[in-house]
Every structure is written in structure tokens, then in C-alpha cells.
Amino acid sequence: MIRGLLLAAPLALAAALAQPAMADERLVQHPYAPNEVVRIDGRPGVQATITFGEGEAIENVAVGDSASWQITPNKRADVLFVKPLEAAARTNMTVVTDRHTYFFDLVASPKAKPVYLLRFTYKDAPKKAEPMVAALTPAEQSVLGGTVETPVDPAALNFAFRTKGDARILPARMYDDGNATYLLWGEKAEVPAILIQNAKGEVGPVNYSVRGRTIVVEDVPHVILLRSGKSQATIENQRPAAPAAGTPSSAPNAGAATPPASLAPASAVVAAATPAASPIREN
């Protein structure tokens, strides 16, 4: 449905089409520019999908001729579906999100070549942090009960710890499997005294075992204290809390049936998907 993106010059349009989102040329990526009108060439019976930044929510959609175009957001209000209802129609559309404002020129033509996806990209988009998961050594696999045939997947372990204090007495590696905490010091490092702190702030000893060079602390304490002479350090477990079993959904009308988008006018769908936003209106 989308043929291309009309920029300030035909050369710029060609450059946008030369960089598809995937190997299929019908999937197009386009860098966001705040002062740009993006042209979408549509064809009746073919739908275009517009996606925005990760976590970006649509707040308002306005179209000049809502009778000739069907504009429908998804339930999460982060994707917009655009489809012409007439063979030849032209109008404009403005999309306001919680981050940006987008301007579109919608042009329907029976000869348009459909492009199925228009995905906006952003120069200032934050990069996803890589998970702090490293491969386990054979010794660590042995401590965890893994074997060469059935190794323990490091992705199943928690490596999220926050440390503070004297780095000289901190372990070189720490992780937990949900049942025990594993602390590994270097070969020549002296292992400090290991204590735990409960929710009341009370400090006491902890039961642990030694497997090779790995200290296996029973259970998964939230705070572990290390002491060696005048040196002190703290290890705080940052494992995400698991949701309580049987907790009901806090969303109102959870499980209520939603009528298919094809059975409701575009304005009604927009209003349902974005309660705080104004419905599609005819300018």
C-alpha cells in the first residue's frame, strides 16, 4: 500500500526505498525528521502498517478525509494501520505520540505498488543493554551439576548483582540459580568472612559450602556482607521479583471482548485504543 516516502527531492525518496527494513523491498525503514511530510501511496484492498519507536504511544490521530481512509491503531496504541477506502483519494494525516509529531500525505491510486511496512528509526533511540551473561567454565558447570552432555544454561542464572565497598575482597564472579548463591574468587585471592543481612538490617553468619574455588551460599540472600580486617564490601542481589501466583489483573474490564476493528468505524477504534486521545476527526 505504501509505494514510497516523498521527501524534499526525488533523490531522497530513492535513498529511502533503497534501504528496506528487511530483504523484502516492501518493508521500509525511514529515519524520523520532525519537519518532514511523509507520503504514503495506497491502493484499495491493501493495508499499510506504520510502527513507531519502542514504547512510543499514540495519543492523537487526525485525518482530513476520514470517509475515504480507514485509520486504525492496535490495542497498545503503538502501531497504526492505514487503508484507503476509495480508488482515488488524497488527504493529510497528523499523528501525535507521547514523543513526536508525524505528518503524512495520503494518496490513493489503483496503480500504486504496495509496501507493507513503514518503520520509523531514530538517531537518539537508546540501545538495548546486552544481558550480563557469560559462558560457564567447566568447573562452574560441575558445581551447578551440569555435564558436557547436559550443560547448565547461563541464561537460566541470575548475574544481576550490585556491589560496593573494597573491590579487593569482592569475588571475581557471582550468580545464583534461585536456590543458592555462588561466589568465586581468584586463585590467589583470600576469601573474606561472609555474612548476611536480613530485612530488619540484622547481620549474622550464613551457611555455605566450598566446591573447588566456589563458595556456595545456602539460599539467595538479598544482601551479603564481606569482612576482611578493616576492609568491607557489600553484595546486593538485583534479581527481578517474580509475580505472585494467582494475582488478578489490575487492568479494568480484563478479559472483556473487543469487537473486531473491521466492524467498527476508524474513529471508534482510535477512541477505544487511546482513551485520553481525541478521536479521528475530519479537518
TrEMBL record:
Coiled-coil intervals: none
Protein name (record): Type IV secretion system protein VirB9
Keywords: Signal
Species whose genome carries this gene: Novosphingobium fluoreni
Secretion signal, residue range per the UniProt entry: 1-23
Family of this protein: Belongs to the TrbG/VirB9 family.
Region annotated Disordered, chain positions: 234-261
CDD domains: VirB9_CagX_TrbG
Pfam families from the UniProt entry: CagX (PF03524)
Gene3D superfamilies: 2.60.40.2500
Keyword Signal included in the entry's annotation: yes
Biased composition regions of type Low complexity, renumbered to the chain: 240-261
Presence of keyword Cell cycle: no
